[in-house]
Amino acid sequence: MQNNIYKEVIEKIIESIDEGIHFIDKNGKTLIYNNAMAKLEHMNKEDVLNKSFKDVLKNMEIKNSTLLKVIRNKKEIKDNVQKYLNKDGKEITTINTTIPVKINGELIGALEVSKDMTQIQTLSEQIIKLNDIKENNRKNKTKEGYNFSDIIGESECIKKAINISKKATKSDATVFIYGETGTGKELISQSIHYESKRRDKPFIAQNCAALPESLLEGILFGTVKGGFTGAIDRPGLFEQANKGTILLDEINSMPLQLQAKLLRVLQEGYVRRVGGTKDIPVDVRVIATTNENPVDILNEGKLRKDLYYRLNVIYIEIPPLRERGEDIILLANKFIKKYNYKLNKNLIGISEKGAKVLKNHFWQGNVRELENTIYSSMSLMENEDVLDEDMININEYKTNLSENTYIIDIGSKPLDWIIGDIEERYIHEALEKSGENVTKAAAILGITRQNLQYKMKKYNIRINR
């Protein structure tokens, strides 16, 4: 009786998870094939269960089957990127972990857990194409991007950051930039590149939080045909940025295993494509950025200390806008001029009361939030020629997710903590409302599944499965 209960519970678990599950016995017959795998491969479970694996997936070459490889070699294959055609002839991309299953030391079959990465793979290829387009555009122009003349500010703290950045243009040393979201880290990075001796070579930026490790590694270092199923010969961003600069944004989000490979590239000056054996020399200046305090990410183990010290040859800290009080109106006037042209307006400035509103706001989103506020305010104006206090459209963070009101002692906690606390609580509520289904919870919150998983990791939120 108890065994039947265990069996029923396990079957429920297998059918409720988002990952595909496929188990074959040592003769290649499918014994377990869950709904997620059937959906991924566009197969009917009845056409797969108790059938020979070789007869079912005829579009896949037998030699490329990780399940059959594990049966033959009796060794685990972990985090393997695989491309193949499903029943309808559509190419799908998965990340698989395949393990041999043994009882009393005897092999009885192989189990594969698959995550559908088709959309992310398509996105990564689009990123590569966009980088290729940017590179072609760069070759057809004498100059593109920002330089120091684009940076507006008279406060001492921003002047200090600019001064260090200008000194950084005179060498090829790696640069580590810390600044909150919206402070202008890429603007500083591009300014360093376009005023250095590398100005006529590529500047390529990659957000390290945008893609999972297996795809990010291929994008950074390239791939070799045959290196894994569906792989083609493709140079990575380091090769594309040769003689130029590569910006690694949100370096603290890069998986630790990939950080070790990046460290080796920085130390040796060579890259090795995924699946390749050849070392390819590259001459690339690296600029890394983080939106979290370096001390915190080191203490939390998000960034390897040896990599941090290798990157942190020149350290630049960009101050948040709230510490640049005298720059707020300077920047606001710059954005008014910009959007006068775009919106066909004719504003001549900001009223005294309007300036006071702008100066008193906390600007959690920094310069980016200020620009969006000016853009939004000007878009709603009609015939006014001055931006007054009642015309300033500062978007407050609101949600209809819950009727609960959170009361927080704002006198004792910084705004970053308050925003984080509210965000964490809403994530818990969304997971509760969705029955701890991550995909449904992401839809409730209006964000992507990947973004929700990133935030769950950030707040150490686990689901009870």
Automatic annotation (TrEMBL):
Keyword Nucleotide-binding: yes
Keyword Transcription regulation: yes
Transmembrane annotation, as ranges: none
GO molecular-function term, one example from the UniProt record: sequence-specific DNA binding
Origin: domain of life: Bacteria
Keywords, in A-Z order: ATP-binding, Nucleotide-binding, Transcription, Transcription regulation
Pfam families: AAA_lid_14 (PF25601), HTH_8 (PF02954), PAS_9 (PF13426), Sigma54_activat (PF00158)
Domain PAS: 6-52
Biological-process GO terms, alphabetical: regulation of DNA-templated transcription
Classification via PROSITE patterns: PAS, SIGMA54_INTERACT_1, SIGMA54_INTERACT_2, SIGMA54_INTERACT_4
The Sigma-54 factor interaction domain, residue ranges: 151-379
PANTHER family reported in the protein's UniProt record: TRANSCRIPTIONAL ACTIVATOR ROCR, TRANSCRIPTIONAL REGULATORY PROTEIN
Name of protein: Arginine utilization regulatory protein RocR
